[in-house]
Design goal:
Layout lengths: L4 H4 L3 E5 L8 H12 L4 E5 L5 E2 L2 E2 L13 E4 L3 H13 L4 E4 L10 H13 L3 E3 L5 E4 L4 E4 L7 E8 L2 H14 L3 E6 L8 H8 L7 E6 L5 H14 L2 E5 L4 H11 L6 H11 L2 E2 L3 H13 L8 E5 L2 H14 L7 H8 L13 E2 L6 H13 L5 E7 L6 H15 L5 E6 L2 H12 L4 E2 L2 H19 L12 H13 L7 H10 L7 E4 L2 H11 L3 E7 L11 E5 L2 H18 L5 E8 L5 E10 L3 E8 L2 H4 L4 E5 L4 H9 L5 H4 L9 H17 L3 E11 L6 E3 L2 E5 L1 H5 L1
Parallel strand pairs: 1-2, 1-5, 5-6, 6-7, 10-11, 10-12, 12-13, 13-14, 15-16, 15-17, 17-18, 18-19
Antiparallel strand pairs: 3-4, 8-9, 8-11, 20-23, 21-22, 21-23, 24-25, 24-27, 25-26, 27-28, 27-29
Helix pairs in contact: 3-4, 6-7, 7-9, 10-16, 11-16, 13-14, 14-15, 17-18, 19-20
Bound molecules: coenzyme A.
């Protein structure tokens, strides 16, 4: 673990490129440090010396008298390396390089040279291409962003500078307190994983928000995030969801924006909550950083309108909030608060006649009843609903709830209500105009709580005969190919203990008939050719072959079709395989993701995967339980559980196959991609069969 203590709690900070010009970045940084109230040494460095933002400047960092743990660098790119060399002489520990003009515009070499020099001289680099760093612990605002930052307990790690600066402004307006803000920019040295690893041990930080565009060193990121989410809530927003967004993100940061579905699955695996928008992420973090620990999961909705009550109940289901449904307890608790024409069932409906006083007493009831763990309080504007009085009650009640029980508010109405929401939010009350926004906050609180309670799942290790796989790879490479033929893929599957239907490759009619008789009818026949990857498109597959004559006919037609489809195709033979009985067709795979390294995939085969893209991903290694969670995320998973009175399928075997594929990709770096489509799954205890296996080697490896 990198020690970043002195980055967040430096004894002194130098600003190299501090400017006399109040409009320049180098001036803004010094001014922010001074205004922020940082008590350590502040050392502006400028060739003309003089005074900058009221502080004496030095001509060079080497003239500074005092300890400098952090140097902020804001000189043009061509001067950065020299500045870094000077910092080494001064024994600086951390460089915060604001300057742009490095890898984000293709200037990788200079960036690498700077980082290598820094690392060789015991310095770590934040950036380059960043807006700086804020550390609430020592009131250090070493950014050129807003000078007004509210201190609190949310930490923000952001890859985008503009969004980071905007988030500082928004948090200040909304009264959301920050414990730190770190701009990571090009991540030439320190990246999100390093920072999250520090922040998870930081007592001032109660929630971490990450804004990501691309992920590098994903394997390390996964292990850090998994640990971090067990200590405190971590919320992520990642841009690049759409194909266009991904392209923009990639060109913006020079880093790879990984596939969105992969990112989504892996965040779930790590217990990281993914927000759709900046607003949502900030709302979640503000709530998570302030809400007390719920004593139990029983949540009660209190409302004056049936409609919003139902909306909140729907949202509760969507966001995993458990609504308390013990009717007699609820009647007992709220009977005195609810008129006869209302309802004490959850949602507790105080009816449109409810006044601020009624809310006051119902909220007191919910607060004082130990059987209730959390409260969602909704208010619709009515004739008797006085927005001002209601806001006052909410403010007062929230103060009572703040340390004991999580509560969120949603108020729907006109200008007075909207004004009330703004005031409440600025006072730290989780109040929203949209019911969903309120309920989603409660959902992430309980979601994180559930994640924390799960036992740590040990990754499953599967034994593998790597030697056999290695020799198959060598022969494929020797043949100048980067994909395996059916018989080669079969050898790999067998080495990994994955069951395939019995099969043989025949080169002529006679051998084909003999093979089919040996295997037993019915059989299927498939072309084996290095030049034909999509066998069915080429007419290279025949099913339901019942006898010797049909074998001969199929042999002829497959050979003819394939020669017509790919005239010069090299035909290695025709595979004769046992035709397996029908089962549930799944697709399983493993591949080396450019961001996250080995990953695994599961989906239901056929139309489900092609049309509905109903697949889920996880990073490998992973546990059996996590593999099952991945499968459970697909919409079609109930088919495996045995829908409509059907038998439960052999989910355990599917889990096993997925883990084995992950192991192959992890342990055989030359294998880039394996896909079994379909893996036909039978009833529980009866296993699964890999019908078609596609294995690709990584391009670089196969060229050699
Ligand atoms: N040591 C100390 N000070 C130096 C110096 C050195 N080696 N070389 C120059 N300076 C001083 C200059 O004299 C100047 O001070 P002055 O205005 O009082 O004369 C100051 O440093 C700034 O240098 P200047 O040449 O005026 O640069 P600049 O302010 O126009 O631009 C950057 C410098 C770093 C701001 C600019 O190169 C840059 O990268 N901008 C983009 C930053 C950004 O957007 N980052 C990402 C945000 S998300």
């Amino acid at each position: 673990m990198s020690d970043l203590k002195s980055l967040f709690e430096p004894r002194g900070v130098a600003v190299i490129g501090a400017s006399h010009n109040t409009r320049k970045i180098g001036y803004r940084v010094v001014d922010n440090i001074v205004k922020g109230g940082y008590k350590g040494g502040i050392f502006p460095v400028n060739p003309k010396a003089g005074r900058i933002a009221g502080v004496d400047a030095s001509r060079s960092i080497n003239e500074v008298i005092g300890e400098v743990d952090v140097a902020v660098i804001a000189v043009p790119a061509v001067h950065v390396l020299d500045a870094v060399k000077n910092c080494a002489r001064k024994h600086v520990e951390h460089l915060v390089i604001i300057t742009s003009g490095f890898s984000e515009i293709g200037n990788n070499e200079e960036e690498r040279e700077i980082v290598n020099f820094a690392r060789d001289h015991g310095m770590r680099v934040l950036g380059p291409n960043i807006f700086g760093l804020y550390s609430g612990r020592v009131s250090l605002n070493a950014t050129f962003g807003p000078s007004d930052i509210t201190k609190g307990s949310v930490s923000i790690v952001t890859q985008s500078g503009a969004i980071g600066i905007a988030m500082i402004g928004k948090t200040a307006y909304e009264g959301i307190g920050l414990s730190s803000v770190i701009s990571v920019g090009n991540k030439a040295d320190l990246d999100e994983a390093d920072l999250v690893e520090h922040l998870m041990h930081d007592d001032d930080t109660r929630a971490i928000l990450m804004y990501l565009e691309g992920v590098r060193e994903g394997e390390r990121m996964v292990s850090v995030l998994e640990q971090a989410a067990r200590t405190k809530p971590v919320v992520a927003i990642k841009s690049g969801r759409s194909a266009r967004g991904a392209a923009a993100a990639a060109s913006h940061t020079g880093s790879l924006a990984g596939s969105d579905e992969v990112f989504d699955g892996i965040m779930k695996q790590c217990g990281v909550m993914r927000a759709e928008t900046i607003e949502e992420a900030l709302d979640w973090c503000a709530f998570l950083s302030r809400a007390p620990e719920p004593k139990n999961d029983n949540t009660v909705i209190i409302t004056n309108g049936g409609g919003v009550g139902v909306l909140a109940a729907d949202a509760s289901e969507k966001y995993g909030v458990h609504l308390y449904d013990d009717a007699s307890v609820l009647h007992d608790a709220f009977g005195a608060n609810v008129p006869d024409f209302g309802s004490t069932k959850n949602p507790v409906d105080l009816t449109g006649a409810a006044t601020a006083k009624d809310y006051d007493s119902s909220l007191s009831t919910a607060l004082n009843d130990p059987r209730i763990g959390a409260v969602i309080c909704l208010g619709c504007e009515t004739a008797v609903f006085d927005a001002k009085q209601f806001t006052d009650v909410v403010k007062k009640k929230y103060a009572d709830f703040a340390r004991t029980k999580p509560v969120v508010f949603s108020l729907v109405g006109g200008a007075a209500i909207e004004q009330g929401i703004t005031t409440l939010r600025q006072n730290g009350v989780p109040a929203f105009s949209d019911v969903n926004d309120a309920v989603s906050c409660m959902g992430v609180l309980f979601g994180h709580r559930r994640f924390m309670r799960q036992p740590v799942k040990d990754p499953e290790r599967v034994p593998l005969d790597v030697q056999i796989i290695g020799s198959v790879i060598a022969s494929v490479k020797g043949d100048g190919r980067n994909f395996m033929l059916a018989n080669e893929a079969r050898q790999v599957m067998e080495a990994a203990g994955i069951a395939l239907p019995e099969s043989l490759v025949a080169k002529n009619f006679g051998a084909a008939v003999e093979a089919a008789r040996g295997i037993g009818y019915p059989v299927v026949m498939k072309i084996v050719s290095r030049d034909i990857i999509h066998k069915s498109d080429a007419g290279g597959i025949a099913l339901n072959i019942e006898n010797d004559d049909e074998v001969v006919d199929a042999f002829e037609s497959i050979s003819r079709n394939c020669k017509e489809h790919v005239p010069n195709a090299h035909i290695d033979g025709i595979e004769i395989a046992k035709q397996v009985p029908k089962g549930i067709e799944t697709i399983v795979g493993a591949r080396r993701d450019p961001s996250f390294g080995p990953i695994v995939m599961f989906g239901l085969g056929g139309v489900y995967v092609e049309i509905m893209k109903d697949v889920a991903f996880r990073a490998y290694p992973l546990s059996r339980a996590e593999t099952m969670s991945m499968m459970g995320e697909t919409r079609s998973y109930p088919l495996l559980l045995g829908a409509r009175g059907d038998e439960r399928k052999d989910i355990e075997t599917v889990t096993d196959v997925i883990l084995r594929l992950g192991t192959i990709v992890k342990e055989c770096p030359e294998i880039a991609d394996i896909e079994i489509n379909p893996l036909v799954v039978y009833d529980q205890g009866e296993g699964a069969k890999a019908i078609d296996v596609r294995i690709l080697l990584s391009q670089n490896e196969s060229k050699g």
